[in-house]
Structures are given as C-alpha cells and as structure tokens.
C-alpha cells in the first residue's frame, strides 16, 4: 500500500467538509449495535478497503462525528451567580423546603460535569427531605448515580448498602429529621409491626359484646374496642343510632367477608396484623377507608408496604395502593421501580402509569408526583434513548410539575433537545424559545441549531451572533456561531472558542480535519494532540488513529484504537459501521507481534516517559493474551484515573475484582473500589482482611494509602511508613515498587526526614519511576538547594510525555520571569490546571490595597458563602477571585483568573 494511495483515501473522508452535514451525532449508539453487528458487511475486510472506501453521504458521517450536540443540561452564563443565588435562598426558606433547592443546585453541577458536587447536592436533598415521596426519589437517585460502583451487580433492588441516606427502609419513615441520616441504618434493626390498641375513654359500657352477622356467620366483638377504631363506629355503637341498642348487627352488605371481620375484631384488641394473609390485609385496608379507621389503615398500609420486595410485587400492589389512597404502599411500589432503573423503564405497567397524564393525576392524589420524580425519570430515559416516546412523555410530565423558573427552564430545554434528536425541528425551536424566555440563555443556541436544521442558515447565524452581542461572550457561543459560517470567519470563531474555553473538543477536531484536507497530516496530529494532552475522549483518539493511518504509522493507529477500546469497548468507527475491535484485528496483521516479555518492556518504557495513553494501549494488548488477569485490569484502572476517566477506571477495577485469582487479591480490589468511592474506613478493613489471609504488596499498599488519607497525625505517618516498608518486602514488579518508594519518600518529607526521603526517590529513579524527580526536587528545595531543584524538574520535563504538571512545579524553583514562562507553558499544555491562573491573578493584584479593603467583605462574603456550602474542587479559586476584585488592579486580575 503506497503512501499516496492512503492519502487519497483519507482525503476522500472530507473531514472538515463533513461539518456541514445535518446530523447531530457521530455514530449508531454502541448499545444498539450488539443486535445488528452481524449484519455489517465484513466479507474479506482489509486495511486497504477500510481506508480506500469513502463514507456514504458525501462526508455526512464525519458531520455526525464532528458537529457538537446541544447539551441537555443547564448551561449557565454565570454559574457562580446562580449558585450564590441558590445559597441565599437556602438561608431564607424553611428547612422542609430545602430539598428542592438542593436539587436545583445539582442541576447546575451536572451542567458543569462536576460529579462529586452533583452527588453532594443530591445527598443534601435527601438529608433535608421531609416527605416520604422525596426520600424514596432521592435515595433511589443516589443509588442510580453510583450503580457502577457497587461491589455486586446482582443485588436485589431493595438491598441496603448500610448507609441510611440510600436505605430503602429509612426512606419510608415519615417526618423531617436531617440528623437521622447519619444514624445506624434501620435495616440493621428489627421492624416492629404491632402496636397496642388504644382504650376508648369516652365509652360508658365496658366488656359488652356485639355480634356482627355476615351471611350465615357471626363474629363476636368487643363493642368498646370496635367503637375505638373510628368516629363513625363510635357514633354507630354508642350514639343515637339504633345499632347502639342492639347486640346483633347485620353487616352483610358492607363489603367485608367473615374472615375479614374476624381480622377487624382481632386488630381492635391487639393492634397486630402479623398472622394475616395479604388478601385479608387488603380487605382490611378497604374496610378502614370506608369506615375512616385511620389507625387500622396506617397499619395495613405499613404492613403491605413491607411485602413489596421486587417489581412483580410492585405491579400487584400498586393498583391497590392507588385505589385505596395508601401512600406508604404506593411509595414502596414506586421505590422498587426507581431502584431497578433503567431496566424497569421497559415495564409497561409502570411506564404507562408514569408517562400518561391520567396516571400522573392518580399518583398526585396519593402524593407521589413531583418535579424531583420526573426529573430523575426523564434523565434516565434520555440516557437510555433520547429519541424515545418515553423520554417525550416524561419530559411533558416534568414540565407540568415545574414550579420555579429554573425548573421550568430545564424541562423546556430538555424537550427542545429531545425534539432536535427526533428531527422535529419546528417543535424543537418552539421549546428552546420557551426555555430562553424562562431565563436559560443557552437555549438560544438550540434555537439557532433548530433554525439551521430547517434550512434557515442566515437566521441561525443571526441568532448565534445575537448571543455574543447581548451576553458576556463564552466559548460555546463562538463554537455555535462557527457552525453557520465558513472560511476565515469560521476559523476565527473556532479559535476564539478555544481561547475562551479550551475544553471544547469540536474546535480542535475541526481544525485538525481541515489540516488533514490540506495534506498537513503532522500539523493535524499536533492539533488533536493539544486536547488529548489534557482531555482524552474516544472521538479524538479515533481521529488521530485515522491520521496515523494516513502516515502508514500502524503502531500509532493501533495505540490509539487500543486506548479507545479501553475507554469504550463497544465503540464503532468508520461511519458507525465497523466495530473498533474489528479494525484493530486488521491492523494487527501489519505490525510486528510482541511477546509477553516485549509487552512488559514496552510498558516500562512508556511508564518511564509518563506516556499514559501509550501505557494504556500496552496493557490492552497484554489483556488480549490474558483477559482474565485481574492484576492487569487493576493497572488499567490506575492509568484511567490518571487520564481523568473515572467511569472507565471503575469498570476496569470491577473487572479486576471479577477476575481476581485469589480471595486476598479480590479483597484488595474491593478495598480500592471502596476507597475510590469515598469509604476510607471500609477500604482499610478490606486491606486488613486481605493481609490476614496473605501478606502482599497490594494489600499493604492499599492500607498505607487509605490510612494516609484518613489521618494526618504523626503516629499515623509512622504507621504509613511501616506499611510501605512491609509492602516493599513483598514480591512485586518495578512499576509498583517505584510508586511505593515515591509515596514513602513523600511521607518522609512530611515528617521532616529529608535524607531518607532523598534515598527513596533515588531508589525509585533507579527503577525508572520518572515521577520521583518531582519528589527529589522538593527535597532539594527544602534544603535550600533551589538550583538543584530546578535542574531535577528539568530532567522530568525532558523525560515526560505529559509534563504540564512538571512545568507548573518547576515554576516554584525559579525567578519570577522564568516562573511565568513555565506557568504559561503549563496552561498551554493543560488549561484545566488552576494554579497558573491563581498565580497570575495574585501577581496582578495589589496586595496592599487588598489588605486595606478586605474589611468591607462584599465580594469575599458573596464567594465564601458559596464555597462554604459545597465547593470542593474550586472553592479556593472563588475566594481568590473575590479578593482580587477588591484590589487596585482587581478588574485586570479577575479577568485573568476568570479566563
């Protein structure tokens, strides 16, 4: 295959031209391909055929790949202002009203893709929920958000993880009690169903029996006990009615059987339902409703709710609950449905009840219809299939339940996104316009996109241009406008989009595609490398793989496809028609095959030069030969965490646990799952259990890691040292021992033992753990050997493929001008790193002016109460931008930081 032939084939893809197509998404959804993959024409495929055949539709497939979708979540022009506003409202409202505001706060974090803060908001919403309905919704929602982190995939829906916030039984307890969510889980305590019957103090008759005749049978009851069941019974048996003078009462036409009346009599004496069948309890529930026996109804409701364990039970009981207005029973049925999402969305009984207007009204009558419920359901439905009728119906219910402006804006915007996906462009435009009127500025981008899809290109351009003119410019505004122009103007908009928001992938991909069309392949690769340096995605890896093929760099193409498959094992390439793993098999025929020893050598080389994507590709290749080796899956998870791909990392870690070769190894992986999900104490326990079975490097390393993160006192540090030393005594490979030595050096530095720390770092470097240069530089710095520290970091920069953090760290060991140059390079390589912005902002601020004005606290107060609520990832930045805004050079500094 000649190089020119490949270039012609790649040009035929019309990468940049493809952006003019009319479709939103790149490929057929991966989850749907499993049903159709055998239908793909794969007869005698070859690399030559894969490259030479141009995609159908004049490049429309690449249009689907490159055109950015409209984000279905809230995307605010000023999220800080919105979060501050929500916090102010939280201070003013009643405690029982806070859960709804925490839910709205979670919408903001979801739009920012801040998963940790999103979950924190949902936990706060559950903590402050006062109604049973709110509790079951938020508990199930928290469980859904963490579904990929559970140790066991096959747990029953009503299983409790031991945490009261997510406990199904705790959710069925009425009342506002935010403190109890931190108490021991109710699942650990027996559920008492019997309550003593109350005495009727108003009766003048004691011990008198009354006989209820039902058909040919009779039930002898205590008149006083029956009268105590309700006001109607008391009036009948002790009031002015004739029944009060009779000892025998005909009860045949009151809808209760002889067995049912016997159960009523028993309940009137004992207050217990334990020995009764569900059929009899349902009969008692209906009887209690008819005769206003509130205590009996509550007991029946509670008893029946405890019988609902799975979706089948829920299908049976939910209709009874709705018919008899049994709030707890309906809650229990609804909770099972919610905790089985997304699978339960396919249940016709519940989907009909929840999606239809009449069903929604029936749920509302028993207190089980809310914005929170339909927000949760619509999110799940859109993730499952955005174009489905179910998504549309649930969003319509969501719109009906919206009470605040933010809630209404979200519902309308999401309806617009769904209609856009369904190619119902006029309806999409109407919904987006309504969302914009409700205050969601980003929906105007949806208006522009819908107009463009309808063929009104100039109108779409005017809409996007109006956004830039009327509001503070943002990267997504320029990105949107670029879709409706061409040539230099398009490139200017894309460059401005990247300048304002470097995390947007579309501008990089389009520029790279355009360069490819101009046969500037190396420059195209350099462009796509800009974003892959700090934000890894399957789409960008796919594009770089095509570029590598154009250069006949099969090794590079294999690297990217292997990394891509690690992120998404079901990814489809080549217009969504070919599984990535099929192309991988074809390319393997054109490269030299590595032995197991070769793979380990390659992994050491890539690990040493801090090439995480390359390391990921090598591990993927090793897994082809040993797919059930848990240790390799574990290594894969560590690399994915470094690449900031937490979901893929958790999937690999779960696979590591599944393929663990021994019980002690399995416990280690379970411990890491618990550690990564925030359960430090449980992780420590797992490591200790593993060590009891067998002493191993990974068990000691896990225990040291978890202990260091749990406690910072000197005694704890000494224990961490001992644990790491024990780990180093156990068998392991150099990659992991290098990391342990590096961690041990860090602990020694924290303890002030600099010489011991230096020895650890040097030992780590001797086994090619390149990151140890940073620790050794820190030791030199603490010894006031600043030049040596600078030189050590320079060595790291020269060796590391991903070296943004190295430039950032080296800036601490040099003069101001050199530091600014290093920080500029760090920002260029990784715009997500916050320290360079903070440094430059602080440098632009007048510190003396700030000290004089800090007392007024206007800006500081605003930002601190935002930060104090739930900001973890960028709280310091909020405070910084607050005080620099008060300084003499505040506007300039704040503008630099806001970038």
Automatic annotation (TrEMBL):
<dbReference type="InterPro" id="IPR011990">
    <property type="entry name" value="TPR-like_helical_dom_sf"/>
</dbReference>
<dbReference type="InterPro" id="IPR044631">
    <property type="entry name" value="ETO1-like"/>
</dbReference>
<feature type="coiled-coil region">
    <location>
        <begin position="783"/>
        <end position="817"/>
    </location>
</feature>
<dbReference type="GO" id="GO:0010105">
    <property type="term" value="P:negative regulation of ethylene-activated signaling pathway"/>
</dbReference>
<protein>
    <recommendedName>
        <fullName>BTB domain-containing protein</fullName>
    </recommendedName>
</protein>
<feature type="domain" description="BTB">
    <location>
        <begin position="208"/>
        <end position="308"/>
    </location>
</feature>
<dbReference type="InterPro" id="IPR019734">
    <property type="entry name" value="TPR_rpt"/>
</dbReference>
<keyword id="KW-0175">Coiled coil</keyword>
<dbReference type="InterPro" id="IPR011333">
    <property type="entry name" value="SKP1/BTB/POZ_sf"/>
</dbReference>
<comment type="pathway">
    <text>Protein modification; protein ubiquitination.</text>
</comment>
<dbReference type="InterPro" id="IPR000210">
    <property type="entry name" value="BTB/POZ_dom"/>
</dbReference>
<dbReference type="Pfam" id="PF13181">
    <property type="entry name" value="TPR_8"/>
</dbReference>
<keyword id="KW-0802">TPR repeat</keyword>
<feature type="repeat" description="TPR">
    <location>
        <begin position="738"/>
        <end position="771"/>
    </location>
</feature>
């Amino acid at each position: 295959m000649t190089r020119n032939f490949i270039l012609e084939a790649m040009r035929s893809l019309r990468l940049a031209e493809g952006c003019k197509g009319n479709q939103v998404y790149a490929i057929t959804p991966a989850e749907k391909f499993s049903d159709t993959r055998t239908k793909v024409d794969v007869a005698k495929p070859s690399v030559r055929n894969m490259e030479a055949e141009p995609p159908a539709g004049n490049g429309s497939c690449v249009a689907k790949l490159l055109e950015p979708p409209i984000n279905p979540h809230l995307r605010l022009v000023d999220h800080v202002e919105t979060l501050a506003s929500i916090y102010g409202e939280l201070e003013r409202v009643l405690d029982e009203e806070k859960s709804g505001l925490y839910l709205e706060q979670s919408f903001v974090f979801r739009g920012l893709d801040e998963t940790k803060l999103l979950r924190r908001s949902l936990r706060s919403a559950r903590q402050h929920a006062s109604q049973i309905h709110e509790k079951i919704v938020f508990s199930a929602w928290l469980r859904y958000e963490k579904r990929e982190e559970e140790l066991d995939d096959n747990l029953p829906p009503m299983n409790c993880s031991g945490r009261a916030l997510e406990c199904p039984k705790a959710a069925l307890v009425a009342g506002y009690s935010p403190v109890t969510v931190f108490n021991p889980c109710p699942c650990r305590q027996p559920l008492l169903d019997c309550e003593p019957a109350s005495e009727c103090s108003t009766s003048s008759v004691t011990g008198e029996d009354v006989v209820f005749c039902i058909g040919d049978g009779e039930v002898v009851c205590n008149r006083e006990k029956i009268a105590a069941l309700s006001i109607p019974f008391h009036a009948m048996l002790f009031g002015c009615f004739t029944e009060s003078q009779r000892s025998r009462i005909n009860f045949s036409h009151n809808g209760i059987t002889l067995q049912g009346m016997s159960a009523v009599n028993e309940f009137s004496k004992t207050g217990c339902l334990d020995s009764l069948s569900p059929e009899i309890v349902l009969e008692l529930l209906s009887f209690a409703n008819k005769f206003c026996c509130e205590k009996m109804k509550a007991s029946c409701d509670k008893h029946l709710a405890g019988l609902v364990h799975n979706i089948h039970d829920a299908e049976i009981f939910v209709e009874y609950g709705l018919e008899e207005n049994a709030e707890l029973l309906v809650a229990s049925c609804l909770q099972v449905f919610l905790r089985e999402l997304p699978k339960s969305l396919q249940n016709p009984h519940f989907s009909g009840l929840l999606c239809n207007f009449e069903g929604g009204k029936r749920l509302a009558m028993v207190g089980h219809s809310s914005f929170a419920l339909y927000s949760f359901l619509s999110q799940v439905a859109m993730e499952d299939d955005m174009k489905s009728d179910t998504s549309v119906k649930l969003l319509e219910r969501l719109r009906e339940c919206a009470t605040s402006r933010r809630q209404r804006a979200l519902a309308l915007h999401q309806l617009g996104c769904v209609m856009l996906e369904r190619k119902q462009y006029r309806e999409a435009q109407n919904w987006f316009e309504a969302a914009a009127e409700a205050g969601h500025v980003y929906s105007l981008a949806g208006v522009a996109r819908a107009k463009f899809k309808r063929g009104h290109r100039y109108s779409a351009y005017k809409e996007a241009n109006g956004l830039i003119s009327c509001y503070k410019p943002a990267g997504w505004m320029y990105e949107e406008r670029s879709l409706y122009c061409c040539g230099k103007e398009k490139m200017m908009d894309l460059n401005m989009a990247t300048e304002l928001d470097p995390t947007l992938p579309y501008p990089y991909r389009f520029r790279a595609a355009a360069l490819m069309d101009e046969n500037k392949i190396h420059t195209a690769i350099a462009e796509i490398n800009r974003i892959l340096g700090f934000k890894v995605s399957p789409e960008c890896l796919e594009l770089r793989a095509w570029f590598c093929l154009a250069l006949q760099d099969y090794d590079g193409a294999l690297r990217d496809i292997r990394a891509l498959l690690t992120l998404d094992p079901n990814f489809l390439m080549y217009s969504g028609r070919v599984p990535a793993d099929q192309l991988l098999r074809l390319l393997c025929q054109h490269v030299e095959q590595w032995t197991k020893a070769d793979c380990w050598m390659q992994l050491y080389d890539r690990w040493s030069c801090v090439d995480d994507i390359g390391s990921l590709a090598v591990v993927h290749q090793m897994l082809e030969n040993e797919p059930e080796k848990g240790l390799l899956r574990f290594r894969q998870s560590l690399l994915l965490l470094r690449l900031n791909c937490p979901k893929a990392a958790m999937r690999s870690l779960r696979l590591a646990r599944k393929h663990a070769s021994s019980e002690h190894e399995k416990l280690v992986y379970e411990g890491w799952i618990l550690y990564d999900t925030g359960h430090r104490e449980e992780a420590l326990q797992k490591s200790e259990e593993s060590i009891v079975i067998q002493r191993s490097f990974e068990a000691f390393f896990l225990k040291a890691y978890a202990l260091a993160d749990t406690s910072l006192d000197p005694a704890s540090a000494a224990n961490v040292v001992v644990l790491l030393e024990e780990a180093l005594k156990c068998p392991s490979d150099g990659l992991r021992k290098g990391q342990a030595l590096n961690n041990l050096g860090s602990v020694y530095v924290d303890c002030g033992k600099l010489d011991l720390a230096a020895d650890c770092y040097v030992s780590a470097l001797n086994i090619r753990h390149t990151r140890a240069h940073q620790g050794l530089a820190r030791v030199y710095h603490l010894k006031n050997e600043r030049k040596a520290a600078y030189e050590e970091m320079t060595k790291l920069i020269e060796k590391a493929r991903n070296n943004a953090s190295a430039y950032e760290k080296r800036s601490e060991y040099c003069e101001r001008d050199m530091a600014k140059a290093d920080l500029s390079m760090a920002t260029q390589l990784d715009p997500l790193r916050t320290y360079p912005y903070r440094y430059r902002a602080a440098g632009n601020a007048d510190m003396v002016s700030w000290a004089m004005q800090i007392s007024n606290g206007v800006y500081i107060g605003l930002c601190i109460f935002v930060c104090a609520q739930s900001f973890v990832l960028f709280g310091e930045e909020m405070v910084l931008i607050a005080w620099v805004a008060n300084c003499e050079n505040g506007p300039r500094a704040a503008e630099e930081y806001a970038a």
